[in-house]
C-alpha cells in the first residue's frame, strides 16, 4: 500500500471513530447480475441478466467517489462477462484508478481467463476441495485451477462462503492459498441465509468450529485475510449492522452496507466477515484496529 493511501485511510478512521461519522469509505458497484453459473448458495444471479452500460457505471463511480469512497469493488453476477462494445472489466478498473480510487478490487467466479494485473485484488470464489466446490458451483474446479496457474499477475485472493456443504473444506482452501502461485490470501464469509437458502446456514456451534480451524490454519502460516479478533462477534452475530462505511450501487440504487439490507431479518443473521470487521474497526475496538493495520499492510 502506498504511504499516501495509508495516510488517507488512517485519517478517515481516526475521524470516523472520534466523531462517530457515518460516511462511506468502501463501495461496491454491481456491473450486472448476469452469471454463467447457478451456485446453490446464491440468491442474486440472473434475476434481470441486464448488463449495465459503461457510461452508467462511470457515473456511479463518480457518485461514489464524490461521497468519499476510496476502496472500490466491482461485483456481479460474473464481472468477467461484462461487456460494453469493446470495453471489458479491465476498462472499468483502469477508469476507476484514473478517477482516483486508491484500491480497486474485482470479484469473480474464476471461470474466465484471469488477465487483470491492474486490479489490486481479484477476489476469486473457491468453495472447498474439488468435490464440495463442484457440488456448489458445478463442474468448474479444474477450470478455475488452470486459470489461476495461467493468471498474468499474483493479485488473486480466494473468497470462500462457508456453508453446510463445504464447512469441512476450510483447511483445503487455506492450503491452496498458501501453496498456489498467483494467490496472495484467502478471505472467508459465513453463509448469509436468504429465504431460499436457509438450509445452508451454520449453527453457532458450527461457526465456532470453523473459526477454530481458521485460527489453526493462520497459526500454521496460511495467508488468511480476516481478523481473528472479530471471530467471537461473528460466531454470536452480535456485531453492529448495517455497516455505514460500506455502500452498494446497483443500477442507480444506493444501499447502505449491502443489497441484502432490503431482506427483512437478514441483518441479524449476517455472515459477512468484512461487515463485522469494519463496524468493529470504526467503533474503535483496539484489537480490531491493530489487527486490521497488520493485515492490510501485509496483503494490499
Strand content: 15-25%
CATH superfamily: Aldolase class I
Q: Given the structure, what is the number of helices? A: 10
CATH topology: TIM Barrel
Strand count, sense and barrel status of the largest sheet are: 8 strands, mixed
- Percentage of helical residues? 25-40%
Order of helices and strands: HEHEHEEHHEHEHHEEHH
Q: Any idea what the radius of gyration is? A: 18 Å
- Level-1 CATH class name: Alpha Beta
Structural class, from helix and strand content? alpha/beta
Low-pLDDT stretches are none
- Note the overall shape: globular
Quaternary structure type: single chain
CATH architecture: Alpha-Beta Barrel
Arithmetic mean of pLDDT: 96
Count of distinct strands: 8
Number of folding domains? Answer: 1
Describe the structure.
With 300 residues, the protein is α/β, with parallel strands linked by helices. The chain has one domain (24-228, 263-268): Aldolase class I (TIM Barrel, Alpha-Beta Barrel), CATH 3.20.20.70. Helices cover 38% and strands 15% of the residues. It has helices at 3-19, 54-67, 89-99, 130-137, 141-149, 170-179, 204-219, 231-236, 273-281, 286-299, and strands at residues 26-30, 71-75, 103-108, 121-125, 156-162, 183-190, 246-250, 253-256. It has an 8-stranded mixed sheet with strand order 6-5-4-3-2-1-7-8, with helices on both faces. The mean pLDDT is 96.
Task: Describe the secondary-structure layout.
Blueprint (H helix, E strand, L loop, with lengths): L2 H17 L6 E5 L23 H14 L3 E5 L13 H11 L3 E6 L12 E5 L4 H8 L3 H9 L6 E7 L7 H10 L3 E8 L13 H16 L11 H6 L9 E5 L2 E4 L16 H9 L4 H14 L1
Helix pairs in contact: 2-3, 6-7
Amino acid at each position: 500500500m502506498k504511504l499516501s493511501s495509508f495516510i488517507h485511510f488512517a485519517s478517515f478512521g481516526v475521524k470516523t471513530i472520534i466523531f462517530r461519522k457515518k460516511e462511506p469509505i468502501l463501495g461496491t458497484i454491481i456491473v450486472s447480475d448476469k452469471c454463467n453459473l447457478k451456485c446453490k448458495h446464491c440468491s442474486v444471479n440472473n434475476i434481470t441478466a441486464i448488463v449495465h452500460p459503461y457510461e452508467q457505471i462511470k457515473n456511479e463511480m463518480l457518485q461514489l467517489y464524490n461521497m468519499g469512497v476510496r476502496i472500490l469493488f466491482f461485483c456481479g453476477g460474473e464481472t468477467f462477462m461484462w461487456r460494453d462494445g469493446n470495453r471489458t472489466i479491465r476498462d472499468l478498473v483502469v477508469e476507476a484508478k484514473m478517477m482516483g480510487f486508491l484500491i480497486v478490487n474485482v470479484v469473480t467466479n474464476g471461470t474466465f481467463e484471469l488477465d487483470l494485473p491492474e486490479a489490486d485484488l481479484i477476489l476469486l470464489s473457491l468453495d472447498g476441495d474439488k468435490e464440495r466446490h463442484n457440488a456448489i458451483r458445478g463442474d468448474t474446479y479444474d477450470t478455475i485451477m488452470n486459470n489461476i496457474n495461467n493468471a498474468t499477475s499474483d493479485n488473486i485472493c480466494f473468497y470462500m462462503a462457508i456453508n453446510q456443504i463445504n464447512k469441512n473444506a476450510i483447511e483445503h482452501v487455506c492450503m491452496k492459498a498458501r501453496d498456489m502461485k498467483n494467490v496472495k490470501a484467502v478471505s472467508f464469509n459465513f453463509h448469509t441465509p436468504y429465504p431460499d437458502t436457509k438450509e445452508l446456514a451454520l449453527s453457532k456451534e458450527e461457526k465456532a468450529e470453523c473459526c477454530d480451524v481458521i485460527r489453526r490454519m493462520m497459526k500454521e502460516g496460511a495467508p488468511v485475510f480476516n481478523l481473528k479478533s472479530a471471530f467471537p462477534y461473528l460466531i454470536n452475530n452480535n456485531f453492529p449492522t448495517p455497516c455505514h462505511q460500506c455502500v452498494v450501487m446497483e443500477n442507480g440504487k444506493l444501499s447502505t452496507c449491502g443489497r441484502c439490507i432490503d431482506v427483512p431479518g437478514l441483518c441479524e443473521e449476517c455472515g459477512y466477515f468484512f461487515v463485522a470487521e469494519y463496524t468493529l474497526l470504526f467503533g474503535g475496538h483496539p484489537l480490531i484496529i491493530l489487527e486490521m493495520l497488520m493485515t492490510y499492510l501485509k496483503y494490499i
